[in-house]
Amino acid sequence: MLVTNPFGPGSWTRDQVENISKGWWVLLVSGVLSAVAGGIIILTDWSVADLAFVVGVVLVFRGFFTLFSVPIDGSIRAWSIVVGLLELGVGIAVWTWPGPTLLVIATWIGWLLLFRGVMTVTGAVVARGIIPFWGIVLGVGILEVAASFYLLARPGLTLVATILAIGLTTMFYGVVEIVAAFEVKHLPRRLAQAARTVDGTSTRPLESATA
Question: Which domain holds residue 84?
């Protein structure tokens, strides 16, 4: 998951960049899982009980991967653990709820998306000075908040509307995670290139002045 610290780190150290980059495969696996699961959710003719089971399983797996992820802004892993445990808890609640209804599913998923979205938006804005792809993170957060309002504000949702909302959000989030995974993987190289560019532009005037 795209975990960020809403209180924001002030800067990155080389060790933080390397640590973030090492966790790129967690984002990739989670993104592939989400994209595939979103497609399956949309394309399958579900009953309410079956939809609750599948959504619960997806959240449990995503929560497990989030527990082992590193926040993409370099903040402490406690944020990943908190969000991972929350996803696990919601997944188990949706999964094991006796006689699940659409209202139960929409409420659990809606509040989870609202929490994640607010956290992601805030973290992206606060860390915009250090995350090169902060706009992607911001867009994901805005989408999650919008989806949460859609689910929470419509207690009379139909099964089709619920499937589309959850499936499309899950699929889109997975695609963004896949893109972000490769951004994170190449982060040390890109920051090194940016540093060399800055050094080059800063020394050029001195060189011309002494020529």
Answer: 14-189
Does any domain span residue 210?
no
Instruction: Answer whether 119's CB lies under 8 Å from 66's CB.
Output: no
Q: Which of 119, 63, 123, 125 is nearest to 91 (CA)?
A: 63
Each residue's pLDDT tens digit, 18-32 = 777 888 888 898 899
Buried b (16+ CB within 10 A) or exposed e, 169-200: bbbbbbebbbebbebbbebeeebeeeeeeeee
Phi, psi of 162 (to 5 degrees): -65, -45
pLDDT at 204: 44
pTM for this one? 0.78
Give the ranges where 12-76 is alpha helix by DSSP (H): 14-22, 24-43, 48-67
